[in-house]
Write a structure and sequence with these properties.
66% of the residues lie in helices and 11% in strands. The longest helix is centred in the middle third of the chain and has 57 residues, at 366-422. Helix 6 (102-119) runs antiparallel to helix 7 (125-138) and helix 8 packs antiparallel against helix 9 (162-178). The chain is built from 22 helices and 13 strands. A hairpin with a 2-residue loop joins strand 2 (449-456) and strand 3 (459-467).
Length: 657
């Protein structure tokens, strides 16, 4: 385990008494403030107590946080208590974020930013930047999240604000983790811990900061395969949870704990943590946090093969996500940011205009200076209005395009994760064929090509398939095809390749409601299905449109396919043909789709074709399978050049021992 983290985990247990006192003081502050409010005068002290009550009560009751925050803001504004007003807006905005109302949250924080900017209250900027970053964090908008977090860190470093700096580091560590930048995430969490360890650091709650740092660090260690270090972080964080007794913090920590256990494939523990976290946030009325948990549950269930539960929670995830990522929300956010920047530029122009006015007065006299100033002011105003109108139109259009593109891309990327979870692991062949490879290159994020493996006693069933279309339509077909193969071979116990393809065709036609009119629907798949019997080295297979090749003694044995797909097609639905070959040691078996051969490229922009594919495979057949894999990728990329990939590519290669 990292020495810094290990020493701090020990320190957590040594400092239990001090942590307990800190927690009791937080509860006491809420209790005392509520008592003082009953008899408080309309002064700045009442604003402070209202802000304390708003912040502390929001952990248990979000609506109460909004109510007291608005009371604090109204009184502070009336008293011209600037810092109190800004703090109240921070509490209100942060609470709206926890409620999942990102539009109101961003409106409130930008109003706060304008207010502090107009009064030059720079000491408040760091907290506001963190809160705006948190809004974008809830929407997985990493670019804007990092932009505001870096501004917050810069402000906190400038003011030497340790508490804000720790919070920003923990948040930026979480963002880097979500972006798969594990080294940057680890660096941020460990830097946060080093600040917490400093006894001179000014922190409001060392326990809460430590909890977030350890929870985030546990996920990083788990992703890096350092499971003992991840477990140590969880144990230390669990002690802090018992001290803090906060449902919100417990829900946050349980999301991290569940993620760690899921990575470790300790799925029952992961399920417990995720469900408990979802229950907490459902009670607290925080749909954005619920959506995070539902996404984690969906991914976990699918990776364990429980596709029914996986799809159930995926629907819940998408329902919650639609609320947070609606087009109107993104457009509103863009408008609010644009408005703030525009107002800021207007103030700068106004300041420059005033300075220019004074210079003109001194140089040309009062009357002449006023005339020139009027002309300049009119030109600036006219130009500013024109520029503002153009910028507003461009920003609105860009916001709509970016929002739609991001929403679509996020959904397709998540679908890719689901599809990948259903595919066999990369080393699925290794137990049977130590020397093997899988070349899988989707044209789009989601692939219409898929490969499938099912181990049975003494034999291995495997297949390589090309579904109609590519992208999302092909992806749906591939998920359906893999599910049908599992049902046919596992539940029905059918392993004869020709029978498997016949039953698969029946299920595809039935599921897609295909009828005799082939023009209506010709969706289906080209597939090679194989059954390998280890003891006799016998390979039985059936081929629908795609052939199977065997490289032996500098020759390529080609086994032709039935010239019809798995699905409806012209002509009668004939039975598939079962073929058999007894393999010899050092034979290489290749199963593939048409994507490689159909790729355009080369000096004349033509198809690669099967003839060249035969030559490449035969020329490199004596090499190790991983070398063949690398050679195929090199040949494909060189042939394609600058042209786009035209189809999904899949090649399976195995060597018989």
């Amino acid at each position: 385990m990292n020495p810094v983290v290990f020493r701090y985990c020990i320190l957590v247990f040594v400092a239990l008494f001090g942590a307990g006192v800190a927690h009791a003081q937080d509860k006491k502050r809420l209790h005392d403030a509520l008592l003082k409010l009953k008899t408080a005068k309309e002064d700045t002290n009442k604003v402070i107590w209202l802000n304390d009550v708003a912040w502390d009560s929001s952990y248990e009751d979000l609506s109460a946080g909004i109510k007291y925050g608005k009371q604090a803001a109204e009184l502070a504004y009336k008293l011209h208590y600037t810092r109190g007003y800004s703090k109240a807006l921070n509490v209100i905005g942060a609470t709206y974020t926890d409620m999942g109302d990102v539009s109101k949250a961003l409106d409130t924080h930008l109003e706060n930013l304008r207010y502090c900017d107009s009064l030059n209250l720079q000491e408040m900027f760091g907290a506001i930047y963190m809160n705006i970053a948190n809004v974008y964090s809830r929407q997985n908008n990493y670019e804007r999240n990092l932009f505001y977090l870096k501004k917050a860190i810069s402000e906190c470093e400038r003011k030497k604000a340790d508490n804000g700096l720790c919070t920003s580091l923990n948040n930026i560590g979480t963002t880097y983790y979500q972006m798969d930048s594990l080294s940057k995430a680890r660096e941020a969490f460990i830097r946060s811990i080093s600040i917490i360890k400093n006894p001179d650091a000014k922190l409001k709650s060392r326990e809460t900061q430590t909890l977030y740092a350890l929870s985030g660090l546990s996920l990083v260690y788990a992703r890096e395969g350092l499971f003992s270090e991840a477990d140590s972080c969880i144990r230390a964080a669990t002690v802090l949870l018992d001290l803090l007794q906060s449902d919100y913090e417990r829900g946050q920590a349980y999301i991290s704990f569940g993620g760690v256990r899921s990575i470790q494939k300790r799925y029952s523990e992961a399920e417990y943590y995720f469900l408990k976290s979802a229950e907490i946030y459902q009670i607290m009325g925080m749909p954005d946090q619920e959506s995070i948990v539902y996404g984690q549950l969906s991914e976990m269930y699918i990776s364990t093969g429980n596709h029914r539960e996986g799809l159930t929670y995926y629907k819940k995830y998408m329902q919650a996500k639609d609320t947070l990522f609606s087009e109107s929300v993104f457009r509103h956010q863009g408008e609010m940011e644009t408005l703030y920047e525009s107002e800021k530029k207007d103030r700068e122009i106004e300041s420059l205009t005033q300075e220019e006015s004074l210079n003109q007065i001194y140089l040309f006299g009062l009357i002449g200076g006023c005339g020139i100033l009027a002309v300049i002011a009119f030109l600036i105003w006219n130009r500013s209005k024109l520029r503002q109108r153009i910028n507003d139109e461009l920003a609105a259009r860009k916001s709509i395009i970016v929002a739609k593109n991001k929403d679509i891309t996020d959904s397709i990327t998540y679908a890719r994760r689901i599809q990948t979870a259903m595919l066999p692991p990369d080393d699925a062949f290794k137990n049977w064929f130590a020397d093997s490879f899988v070349l899988n290159r989707p044209r789009d994020i989601v692939s219409g090509d898929f490969w499938w493996v099912n181990e049975r006693e003494g034999e291995l069933l495997f297949a390589g398939a090309d579904c109609t279309g590519h992208g999302v339509p092909g992806g749906f077909m591939s998920v359906m095809g893999a599910a049908f193969l599992n049902e046919i071979t596992t539940e029905n116990g059918i392993t004869d390749p020709a029978e498997v393809l016949g039953l698969l065709r029946h299920k595809v036609i039935g599921s897609l409601h295909q009828q005799g009119d082939q023009a209506r629907s010709q969706d289906g798949m080209d597939i090679v299905f194989c059954r390998y019997i280890k003891q006799t080295r016998q390979l039985e297979f059936a081929c629908a449109n795609n052939p199977l090749w065997v490289a032996r003694d500098a020759k390529l044995l080609e086994f032709n396919a039935d010239k019809f797909p798995v699905g409806i097609h012209h002509g009668d639905l004939k039975p598939f043909t079962k073929q058999t070959v007894v393999l010899e040691p050092n034979d290489k078996v290749y199963v593939f789709t048409d994507g490689f051969a159909d790729q355009f490229g080369g000096p004349h922009g033509k198809k690669f074709k099967y003839k060249q594919l035969r030559e490449v495979l035969l020329t490199n057949a004596t090499k190790a399978m991983n070398e063949q894999h690398n050679k195929l990728e090199q040949v494909f990329d060189e042939w394609r050049g600058t042209l786009g990939q035209v189809d999904d590519v899949l090649i399976l290669g195995i060597q018989i021992a």
